[in-house]
Amino acid sequence: MNGAGLTRCAVGVASVAVAARTAHAFDGGEVIASNDAENQAASAAPVAPAGETAGAAAGWPIVAITVLLAAVVLVVARRRGWLRLPSADPRADQVTLRPGGQPLSTDAALWFAALFLLQLLAPAIPVGLLQGSVAADTLAGRATLQWLAYAAQLPFAVMILLRLTGSLGTPLRAAATGALALACAAPVILAASQIASIIQQVLTSARPDELGHETLRVLLDRRGDPWAWAVIAAVTIGAPILEEIAYRGGLHGLLRSLGIGPWATVLLASVFFVVMHLGMIPRDAAGGALAGLFALSILLGLLRERTGGLVAPIVAHALFNAANLILAWLLTPAPL
Q: Is residue 233 part of a domain?
């Protein structure tokens, strides 16, 4: 991705301020992409009822502006070639094993086992062992379970990183690329969320929940709890790193190594990414939240392909989660 072009495109950040109230008042646009460790921790806690949604629906003009901005971003991205992905044999580039190793396609079983253990089994170990002994309905208990789950995931994350070549690339430049790409893609993510939320509202006649993630609700309801900072760190640091190693490292690399094309890989990994977040999305906010996560995941996959590493997707993922936390914090009234 051209740095100068991305910088100019980053004026789209202004659209976040324009559409923030829309994302807050109209649908479940405020959603964080959490790690499976968080899903496991939350599953041990009782889920509070959604409660009554406050505020009036956003005006159609604001929704139309967001969709128009998204269309402009997509047109610019297409004309600048940002959506064109390399078509070279994936077994000849960054998704192979380290020098001297065998192509990943001959070792797919090991990769899939590592990914499966990392994303599904490892978080269940501390949650299962501590079930009943930790109050998972408190922020202290939630934070404890999340960080213990991340610790259980870490060995498998390291194993995946060791099998990726060039996963770090040029860190500072990749980090800047991730931040600017998220700023450019913000209208697209918001538009996807808003359109899906409108469709859900029309089909169900039910107003979507304002908060698209259970963790957001818990944090906002208990924002004075000092343990909130441990949960915030898990959401903005732990989850982006471990999720991107799993999805954009392990799963993405596995699919590419098997000869699947870059765009098909991005889309397939995004479907899996969304499915793995279903447990944390309130049903009333499912349309907007899942569409937004799918659009985000496509961006993360594009960054993985375009930069050849994991730094850019990790940074974009972390900033996405942080932005949603900040917006929810600023726009949601404190509980009485």
A: yes
DSSP annotation of 28: S
Query: How far apart are alpha carbons 106 and 125 in whole angstroms?
Result: 30
The parent domain of residue 249 ranges over: 12-48+55-83+95-331
20-66, pLDDT tens digit by residue?
Answer: 444 443 344 456 666 556 555 544 444 333 333 333 344 678 888 88
> In this structure, is residue 34 part of a structural domain?
yes
Kind and range of the H or E run holding 77 = helix 60-79
The count of structural domains within the chain is 1
CA–CA separation, 304 and 249 (whole Å): 8
pTM: 0.80
Is residue 186 included in any domain, yes or no?
Answer: yes
| Burial class of residue 330, CB neighbours in 10 A (0-12, 13-18, 19+) | exposed
CA separation for the pair 147, 234 (Å, rounded): 7
**Distances, alpha carbon 332 to alpha carbons 65, 118, 187, 230, 329, in Å:** 23, 34, 21, 20, 6
